[in-house]
Each structure stands twice: as structure tokens, then as C-alpha cells.
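Support request from a user on the community tier.

User writes: "When I paste my C-alpha cells into the form, the page sometimes reloads and wipes my input. The last time it worked, I copied everything first. Here is what I submitted, just in case something in the input itself triggers the reload:"
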């Protein structure tokens, strides 16, 4: 899916947008070579050196004037259905510096219309759970966790440690860490999905893929019970507040490399009507991720030792492709 940032101020000139043709209905954009002049022009520059326009197709295209609600409904509806049916889901935004990643994922709390994907997903998930409970009698329990990956050393931080009940806090705790599986090397097997299946052919396909994938997992983070959407939203606010405190303490050059992972863990179980009437159930997770930009602060490029702050966009693309294809080697580093 593609969301186009509404260029502001001087950037909002007609010329700035004249090399991009957006067609939300066909879910595609066409990029014209600026050397050729605006599309349709027959100026002398167009004749010889212009590159052929490039067309890119997406699952959805949200133009500059798209409302937050439009982006949220176009993004989360399918993923939420899958999560409630027992599959894991993940939504994140991905792009260069200051192009609206946080605005899309988190939004602003000045009005309900400017809320982003995370608060919308929380509210809609609980609504869907209520419907599912009434229709099928399934019992649900939701927990939330939030972690930050920050800085050149990619240090991990539990963003809910401050609001976790003191019984869950332990002075000797090693904090959040990544667990590496002794058999798979730097990877561990994902838990299998609930036994009753559901979710149609796509869920069945993703279930097959999940079994063959090996992944790193975060360990030891606070997982707090959220019986209502309001409580989950409270924890989201607490995580955002903890993140902004930790960002303020980061150096200027690493501030943009803060990534926040907010996860809703959905536990569900029900009594089997046939057979011996045992219980069946499982856990699925919805990961909502606000990625940092990982780009150097303008004017400081090349100053910081040790190379880029984290994986480039194209390297992240290779990781995603490897995961989707179930590749044995995932190029995390
Ligand atoms: N669709 C939009 N409508 C209105 N304002 C927007 C929109 N997208 C982004 N903005 C504004 O543009 C600015 C940059 O957006 P934002 O901070 O979300 O970018 P980012 O990609 O998360 O930045 P970073 O690279 O620092 O993580 C913010 O002031 C934000 O409010």
C-alpha cells in the first residue's frame, strides 16, 4: 500500500506534483522523468533524453488528501479479521525521513479524525472481539506489550515497565532481550496457530508458512492485561510517553532511529461441542510498528562512525521478502 505525503509550504507547488500521476482507483502511480518536463508537455527537452515513465502498482493507493480514517479502514480491516481468526498480523509504515510514518501509525490526539492506525486498530479489535464472542461463545483475553529498539547499538527497552504492576518488576531482571534458538542458530520457531483453523484459504496458507519459519523473539517484556479498549489505549499512551522520554535522552544523530513495537496478544479459547468436550484455543498477535527513519540528521551525513544507524529500506525489503518466501536465511544484518 502506498500513502503519499501531502507536501507542505514551498514544496506544495504544482510543479512538485507534476511528475507524479496518482490513480487511486487503479491503485497505481506513474512517475515521469523530470528531465522531460511535465507530462503532456511537448517542449524541446522531452524529445531525446527523457526516460520512459515508470508505473508502480499497489494493493491500495492513498493520495495526498486522504483522511486518516480512510487509511485506517483500508489497512487494518483484513488484518484484524485474521488476528481474531487466529493468525498473527503485522502493520508498519516504511519510508524516508519525515514523510508521515508516525502520523500514519500513531496520528495526533487533537481530534478523533486525526487518530492513526494504532488507536484505530485497538478500538476495532475490541469491537470485533465483542462480535465474535456473541456469535460463537469464544472467550477472549487481550494483553499488550511495547518495546523500543533504539540507537546504533539497537538497544531494547520495555516501554511498559513503568506502568507494570510492581509484582512483575524485578530488580534482578535482565530487561528485554532477543532469544536465539540453540537449534536454528539465531532463530526460533514460531508457535503454531489455534487448532480449529478458520480464516479461509489465506489463513491456511499463512498457517503453513508459519510452521516452516524460524524467527528471533523478544523475551521478558511486560505483557499487561487489557480487558477493554480504553485500557489498551491507556497502555499505548504510556508507551508513547516512555518513548519520548527515552528519545529526549538520545543523541541528536540517533534520535530518528527509535522504532516502537506495540503488540496486542489475543488469547482465545472455547469448549469443543463435539468429542469429549475439551478446551481448544491459542494465541495470535497483532504487531503495530512505528519505524524510525534511520537516516542521518541533514548536514551530518558521514560524520557518525560505524555506518548507517540501521538497515536501509532496501535491506529491510530483502528481510521481508525472505520471511514471506520462508527462506532459510533471513538477512537481518
Ligand atoms: N497526511 C498528513 N497530513 C498532515 N500532516 C502530516 C501528514 N503526514 C505527515 N504530516 C506531518 O508531517 C510531519 C512529519 O511527519 P512524521 O513525524 O509522521 O514523519 P516520520 O516519517 O515519522 O518522521 P521520522 O523520519 O522522523 O520518523 C509531522 O509534523 C506530521 O504531523
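"...and here is what came back when it finally went through:"
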Amino acid at each position: 500500500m502506498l500513502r503519499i505525503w501531502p507536501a507542505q509550504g514551498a514544496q506544495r507547488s504544482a510543479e512538485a506534483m507534476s511528475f507524479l500521476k496518482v490513480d487511486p482507483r487503479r491503485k497505481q502511480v506513474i512517475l515521469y522523468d523530470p528531465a522531460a518536463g511535465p507530462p503532456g508537455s511537448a517542449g524541446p527537452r522531452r524529445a531525446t533524453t527523457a526516460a520512459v515513465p515508470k508505473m508502480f502498482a499497489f494493493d491500495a493507493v492513498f493520495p495526498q488528501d486522504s483522511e486518516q480514517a480512510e487509511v485506517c479502514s483500508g489497512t487494518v480491516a483484513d488484518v484484524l479479521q485474521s488476528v481474531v481468526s487466529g493468525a498473527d498480523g503485522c502493520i508498519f509504515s516504511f519510508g524516508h525521513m519525515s514523510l508521515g510514518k508516525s502520523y500514519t501509525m500513531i496520528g495526533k490526539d487533537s481530534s478523533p479524525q486525526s487518530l492513526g492506525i494504532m488507536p484505530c486498530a485497538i478500538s476495532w479489535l475490541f469491537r470485533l472481539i465483542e462480535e465474535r464472542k456473541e456469535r460463537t461463545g469464544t472467550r477472549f483475553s487481550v494483553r499488550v506489550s511495547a518495546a523500543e529498539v533504539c540507537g546504533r547499538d539497537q538497544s531494547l527497552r520495555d516501554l511498559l515497565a513503568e506502568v507494570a504492576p510492581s509484582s512483575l518488576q524485578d530488580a534482578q531482571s535482565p530487561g528485554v532481550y532477543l532469544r536465539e534458538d540453540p537449534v536454528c542458530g539465531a532463530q526460533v520457531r514460531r508457535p503454531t496457530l489455534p487448532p480449529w483453523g478458520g480464516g479461509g484459504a489465506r489463513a491456511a496458507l499463512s498457517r503453513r508458512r508459519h510452521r516452516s519459519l524460524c524467527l528471533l523473539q523478544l523475551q521478558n517484556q511486560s505483557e499487561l492485561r487489557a480487558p477493554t479498549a480504553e485500557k489498551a489505549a491507556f497502555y499505548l499512551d504510556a508507551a508513547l510517553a516512555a518513548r519520548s522520554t527515552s528519545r529526549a535522552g538520545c543523541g541528536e544523530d540517533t534520535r530518528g532511529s527509535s522504532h516502537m513495537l506495540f503488540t496486542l496478544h489475543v488469547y482465545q479459547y472455547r469448549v469443543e461441542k463435539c468429542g469429549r468436550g475439551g478446551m481448544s484455543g491459542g494465541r495470535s498477535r497483532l504487531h503495530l510498528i512505528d519505524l524510525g527513519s534511520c537516516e542521518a540528521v541533514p548536514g551530518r551525513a558521514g560524520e557518525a562512525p560505524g555506518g548507517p544507524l540501521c538497515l536501509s529500506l532496501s535491506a529491510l525489503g530483502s528481510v521481508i521478502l525472505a520471511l514471506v518466501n520462508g527462506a532459510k536465511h533471513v538477512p537481518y544484518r
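Agent notes: The reload is a front-end session timeout and is unrelated to the input. Residues 117-136 form the longest helix (20 residues). Residues 5-6, 95, 97-103, 256, 292-293 surround adenosine-5'-triphosphate (CB under 6 Å). Escalated to web team.
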